Batch of 3 targets.
Target 1
Amino acid sequence: MRIKKRQNGLIAQAIAGTHVVLLGWDIEVAALKKGILGFAIQRTDHTEGESYWLRGTKTFPDTTPPLAPGGDASSHDQPVQSFQWGDYTAKASHRYTYRLVPMYGAPGALTDGHPIELDVETEEEWSKPHSVFFNRGAIASQEYARKFQNKKPSEVGQPAYEWLSRGLLEAIIAFIKRAKDASFGLRGAFYEFQWKAVLDELGSARERHVDVQIVFDAIDNAAHDPVDKNEEAIADAGIGDFCGGFVNGKLMHNKFLVLTRNGKPVSVWTGSTNLTENGLFGHLNCGHAVDDKRVAQGYLDYWNELKADPGAAALRKYTGQNTPTPPNPPAAGTTLVFSPQKGLATLNRYGDLADRAQHGLFMTFAFGMSEVFHPVYEKDDEVLRFALMEKEGNGAGLAKAKEYISKLRKRPNVVVAVGHNIVMNEFDRWLKEISSAVANANVRWVHTKFMLVDPLSDEPIVVVGSANFSAASTDTNEENMLVIRGDTRVADIYLGEFMRSFAHYAFREAVYIHTQQGGREDDWKPQFLATDAAWLDRYGPAGSAGDLKRRYFSGR
């Protein structure tokens, strides 16, 4: 849900997903800026009967005692010097009131100004037609370091897995459990099909006489990956009788499961999540359930093609006839896109859709940014464009990609974050963080593949699925994508999760860049708050990143 309000010379907007509430605000009466030292944020949880000040990690320079490593402080004592805040501890289906209070005076002797209050209700986790689930995607975090002393989740066990899953694994299990008896069926296609809890749950469904059939990637390659691991996991789970390998392709990259009842498709689970330890608990991933018979039918028809394993030429003919390049703008509702396709028309169309943004564009890139999107991110206008990346590029093109992203960062309307972790103890009073949930991870930070075009408009466009925004994901791999237009609930959830992850990695990347340039802990200053209203200067120049973010998230 979204709510916008004007009160006491302030304007504020709240965007509530399931587990994230984004707050944006601005000062509309110039006199209120004089001497302002930031904002305190009080959250009242009406569902659980609690009220407290939200906390942050920045303090005034002479705060005594200083924060301990990994510590935080009340925003009523150490206010937020920003016009944006994300509450990443919100719970689904809860009622909250957020009270933003401008703070004046001097460090250690602050006084409250006149507040603005927003009443918010977070979204339910399961809804129709769309339900969206994100894992925490933050094993490189202060909370994980505090809770689990940076041990691998396999060493800690169930508490670490539950914290990292954040409901994602549980949602997959719940989806499978919807198949209650012999009147139900499950049809799945998976690239990495290995996590025991999911395979066991599918085995339990078969024991309930559910008609279960799975297609998994068994394509031969030099590394025998993921085929060997898939086959080993299937054998260990004892479910080989309903699992068949897909062999006639280059990368069967799907991760979807269709639920049927009485032979008719009723729902589909899809998204970016591979069924592995790293996929579920390590890098950022999402699962997306669609309770729509038409959408589920499209996936079931595609699954039947995959099961037949006819080869790329036949599949390209099928996708061209059944899921052609979506129109621009997309049709209202949900459009399906399956790969492989003949040519790159759909990839180019994604570039067209990105270019439609009038106010905001938000994209995740797991393996670098395709050149299709370069002209969009290079535009000289006041559209705010975010890019959250696992890394700048790959292989021989990495140096060139890094150079390009470095150039993009200099644009006032482009904001980029690349995954990193804190690599030294007590840097900026932060604890050292581990880099991955597993010993060898191809992707450590960001694995999602989604694009949000004007997510705060009445007609947002969300593109999400298994396919990276790349040529190979369009014309070579077996993939699936959803193009969703006009669903503000879906857009609100994805935007909140994007900004949660973006904020997480933007700071870590700033630390990384500082250390790569020879910086030391004692010359790192961003942990300190300004002692006067000079912090406002970051949000002042018209057209600057600060100005654009302030206006966009406050709803001005």
Note: Residues 488-516 form the longest helix (29 residues).
Target 2
Amino acid sequence: MIAITRMRKTLSVLGACSVLFVCATFSSAAWAQAGYVHEVSGLASIQPASDKARPAKAGDTFEADTTFRTGVDGKVIVKFADGQVITLGESSALRVGTYRYAANDARQSASSLDLMKGEMRYVAGIIGTANNEGVRILAGESMVSIQKPGGADFIVSVHPDPKEIGFTVVAFGEIAVRTPYGPVHRVANDEYAPWRPGRTPPEPLPFAAAPAVVQAAAGELWATVLPPGAPVTVASAARTIGAIAAVTQAEVAAKTDPRLAGYVDAVANTVTMQRGSGGSAAANVGATFEAGTSFNTGADGRAVLKFTDGQIVVLGPGSTLTIDQYQFDPNNTKASKSVVDLVNGGMRYITGNIQTENHEGINITAGASIVDILTTGPADFTVVVNSKDPDKQQEIGVARVSLGEIAVFTPYGPISKIETDRSNLWGPKKSPTDPIPVASALAVVQAAVALQQAELPDNSPVAIASAALAAAAQAEANKAQALANANPENAQLRAAAQAAVDLASATTQAATAAAEASAANVISAMLGTLPPTAAGAAVAQIPASPVPGPVALVVPTATPGAGGGCTGSRC
């Protein structure tokens, strides 16, 4: 026991000397981030050397001299810059001691770990594969060493009180263990080696001969899905996994909040939103909204809103829109509804799944007029109304149809049908079929044309929480790119831009997966309503824009709005 304690002190001194030597050769910043938390379940904490413990969460980064602890139901997976992966089991404590990774020189790299109690699975990275002598692992009062280059994958378990009991199981590679009771010189693939007080450690046994409790504990750790063992840029990988975890958490939250109607996909200039009777706030990209929310685009604002069922609304400058009612159940679209009121201004409206499956559930008003979609299939149209007078008796309006057919019931009489590629005007003291003054018509017509030119997301159903996060991440990536490309010599800005790109890519992938799951639910529900022998008609949709992928580090091309650029995934 005394010998092992002395060994631990010696290792600590050697580790400190190694750090001093390396710092003389490399910048200390190179070792700042050792790794990141890849996954957390149950109760787990992270404690840097100079700070108090806090709950661990996916995406946390850590440096050398950081301690992780798990509760009775906890588990933590951490990944290091060189690709080394540790899975810490329940009721365990692990301290990351020295860690440094030189990508171009494995001999200058080192990693030391101290499993104070509990169980961990260790999978070697570049350091353990190319420089096995650079890896030091303490487990209680024991020391584990990788015996040869090529890597290793093993489990070690120690329970120190009152006297240490431990075991190791090797899945790949070859290790040795110096225990308080004597050495275990070699544990190879599929072998199990125990140690306990009062006896010399026996020769390793086949894992199949291990006690059932050991097989169960090891089996649980083997079954855990681990990240790939390739080296990573810690900050970028942490942002990516943090984004994925955030999407997952958001989706869980969204399932408990069915009120969510949609999210802000893109914004240009200043747009505000007001939820119910509350105060107004900026409508930022990624903001979610529910029924009872109003949007105001001000003099030069513009916004793209996407709803759960895929319905899309584009608001032009000088517009006010209220989401009076919205309810979408992909498993019961017949009970779904959407009621929107364009109080003033311009709106492009693209139908979603509610229109396809429940034509009667769509209600649209524009100023003092009512818009009725005549076709049961998809529709894409623009309506602009100028009705700022209090009694709305001087309304001027235009409707343009890109797909489908609509009718408009104006204050001056009905327009019974507006077909694809047609438009109609209406104004005061004239029947809707009569022309209105050119000067009056010009402004609303131009506004309608401008709204038709926007690039938009596709109109398939989405999981709102994850789609909102993806849109927000994309907006941040666009901003970071603009800064980086405006300052090409600034490495910090370029690194921040790359991290933002990784974040946007991760959230987009997660949102796409969630959207596909939502679409699958919709299709399943639709097919369930068909007779057993019927194939059913295909669900017609507006041609979809490609799902945005990772953002390249180039100068972003902003789509100009009225007086400014566009922020978000599209505008």
Note: The two ends are 69 Å apart (CA to CA).
Target 3
Amino acid sequence: MKTFYRLTDMSKAKTILLCSFLCAVTIVPCYGQTHPSLDSTIICGYQGWFACSGDNSPMGGWFHWNGGQPSPGHQSFEVYPDIVEYSSADLFQTGYAALGDGRPAKLFSAYKQETSDLHCKWMQDNGIDGVALQRFTPSGNYKSYSDSVAVHLMHSAEKYNRMFYIMYDGIGDNMAGLEADWQNTIVNGLKITSSPRYAYENGKPVVCFWGFGLTSYSDNATDALAAVTWFKNHGCYVIGGVPTNWRTGTSDAKPGYAQVYAAMDMISPWTVGRYKSDADVDNYKTNYLVPDKAKLDGQGIAYQPVMFPGFAWSNWNGGAPNDFPRRQGKFMWRQFNNIKSLGIKFVYVAMFDEYDEGTAITKAAADYFDVPTNQYFQTLSIDGVYLSSDFYLRLVGAATKVLKGTMAITPGVPIPNSMGPIYFRSSFEPVDAQLTWVSTSDTVSGGFQNVAGPAGTGNPTCIVASGSGLSGSHCVQYSGKTTSTGSAAAFFKAVDVDIPVVTGTTLSYAINPSSDLSRYAGIDLVMTDGTTLHSTAATDTAGLNMSPAVARGTVNQWTTIKCPIGNWLAGKTIDRILVGFSHSGLVGQFMGSLDNLVIRADNATNVAGTEQPKSFHNHAQSISVLYAGGALTIVGFEKGSHPTLLADVYGISGKRIARLTGSAASIPISLPKGIYIVRMQDNAGRSWMSRISVMK
């Protein structure tokens, strides 16, 4: 935060008069006003252009989701948003079939103030600095719509303490309209730049022009330079969103723009679609990041490289689905590592809400259960590993911490796949998490004993099969043949995970056995300490032991199995998920299907640093974890009794930062602002895990 133009030694009336004059003429903030700086920040592009029929916006119908009601084959967006947290008033019905979990397929309107609030809240929750609001030189209904979105974003940024600035795009030859829009609407009409959350650099309001010099845009160098000069003469700090090859004027860049770029205060070259593999990312560093930075350093111009999570637009402009794979965040984190290695202090993320081109980092559909069942949409789990809907918000938040020096850089992705409440979920559709291992024996847990393949030769199999799923058309299929009346077993390694188990953690899945022998199967778990689920006394909600040696389900029917595994495994960490078969006394074939595998913990949600009380029926208590007054406290024990406590505190990266013990009601610890996972355990072996947000 910086304070500009603080006026002293004059009466209050004169101060107000002079401030009014300065604001009107030189476009600087008024007396005593502070504005955020771009230094050591990550800014995300914000489209805000999604309108829906029925949202009462000036667009009067669907916009950018599609020209008409989105329906199968009629859409212009690639990634489906996670709609769980939007209010019903901000969601509008599409023409798609229901989502995989049965919810109506609805989409949000960006016109709503509540939508802007929610987006800025997500930024605040994850430590993301703010956004650059895209503004296409507007007219007619779109101007009214854009003006409202700008005002809504301003209010939300102020409410959630996020920064923002205006980014003009698609300007073309309408330079006069651009200048009028800035002066008459943004500055004087809507007073956007007067917001205390509007970004200022060197005491000047920030404005960005995206596309000057791009071969696909219609601007020319003379008009572009005139526009940059006009804005700088009117007291602005000017950023240029420029072509990748701005230095050479080749490929995506027009020649003759050197003077335009030299007149800017900051350069931000576009990179979306310019590289795909790790080798490509590293080549970009060598051939672009390094020489770009050297040239700009020599000219005294700031550098704001662009990074993006992945890219595809098969639903809009064709091309391959998942064209530029995100690779569970590895692609984006590689880009960030290269940027950070050069000591660069400004980063731009493409984009916050760009669902059209598949670059959105905001909450998006995690898997099959979050998307319509009759239209392809990219999910965050499409690369075969379950990622929660907020994964990329958390990843950009981690990058922000690294850029600010509050977190160390790591070669690999520093955040867990999920922070709950859903830690793993799959129906094994192509957009879901998949098997890590196929038909692979888990020798540590029992391996293959007296079993062969279905025909009596080779090994038993565990694969993803199509055509017979409970939800969708895919499921896991196990098959084999017992070869002896003695003890027979087939324990397959299925999915590699790293999931903490708390008291409220549950495991659920569906099973469809093809014969009575096939009923002796199910999902098993292996903990990091070697404990298996089948070796405990765990039972499902029907009272059946969770060992695969216990028959479950009905032949040729789907049966859902649910087990509160936290009752037996709390405090441990799941290392891998198994598919197990175990029986003795019968020789014959076995085959069955498993689907809708979910591991979740619904008791790990918190708000503003305190846990809401939760009921643990097995303890007959209501327990909450509180961080306040420099101490962690478990509250809610019966009769106020507090036995010896052990607390493990983990940072957002998943690394344990403290282990503490205490015998009183609380354990002293000082936690700086941030998000933490706290696992507390008493001397009776009971444990509780909570996500703690320290706001101050």
Note: DSSP finds ten helices and 36 strands in the chain.
